Amino acid sequence: QAKRLGGSSFSFYDRSMDGDSRAQIELLAELRQAIERDALQLYFQPKIDARSGQITAAEALLRWNHPSRGVISPAVFIPIAERFGLMRDLGNWVIKAACLQARSWREQGLRMRLAINLSAQQMRQADIVERISTALQENRIQPSLLTCEITESVAMEDTHATQETFRALGDLGVHLSIDDFGTGYSSLAYLRQLPAKELKIDRSFVAEIDTNSSALTMVDAILRLAHALNLRVVAEGVERESQQKWLVKLGCDELQGYLYARPMSSEALLMWAHGEQGGTAPEFRASLFGE
Ligand code: C2E
Ligand code: MG
Ligand code: MG
Ligand code: MG
């Protein structure tokens, strides 16, 4: 039973298991079924170029529409999958589904990068790079068109497996992005060593950039540091025009957030992107960027 439920490190008879854990295990069983039955869905949120307003990439975000509980947030079920050894199956499903979607968009004339998120467990997964490489090949996607987002705290883990995956993904030609940056206290020297191409400023700084001068100072410092290291910078969680104004002024490269688009279905994204890149785009940009 223990083996079926989780990875090698998890014991079903863990003493610390409480009522809460039992609820988690119930959810876990349902999640396993959802993977098997293909009942999960990827949503996509665009990243947009801060200068042109064009879509540059779509970030895949996992959605689970539970039959009785409704949509459950990945912030809830991903930690459970991580804890009980289901992240591997879940993550592999995401890799396949995202690459398949990227191919379909390309066939429909939409060109942009694809971004996926990788968890702590996935970074320790022995065959993760092989999985990604295979999914890219099967869908004839150049590795350089894929971005893998890894949170700063996971990127900082100096376990051999994590750092090895980092290096191997870099070697494959996939772009690496440091997600939720600014909360993990990584050192300058350390950041310089990572083969990353992109840095995403954590939403907590963006949230206060227009109201709190120390948040503004942080964002300014992060941008200078990142640009000195030749990293592109994405601001996540942009919700207001006043935030956008500051980010553009400070030289942020890309923007992402509800101000532009919420995560949406693949069909909706296709329509959104065609709308943006087609006739309505200039007006959209004029209103957002004051062109
Ligand atoms: P993340 O990668 O940092 O993704 C950004 C989160 O912020 C997403 O939440 C997104 O819906 C939300 N967001 C985007 N714009 C705004 C905004 O303007 N305002 C606010 N308040 N929120 C915004 P979501 O989809 O619930 O995902 C939460 C986290 O779960 C992600 O954070 C990521 O770490 C993880 N995650 C999601 N999908 C996957 C996946 O397929 N694989 C892995 N390993 N992790 C995933
Ligand atoms: Mg992300
Ligand atoms: Mg993030
Ligand atoms: Mg986050």
TrEMBL record:
Domain EAL span(s) in chain numbering: 24-277
Domain of life: Bacteria
Signal peptide: none
Protein's name in the database: Diguanylate cyclase (GGDEF)-like protein
Protein source organism: Roseateles asaccharophilus
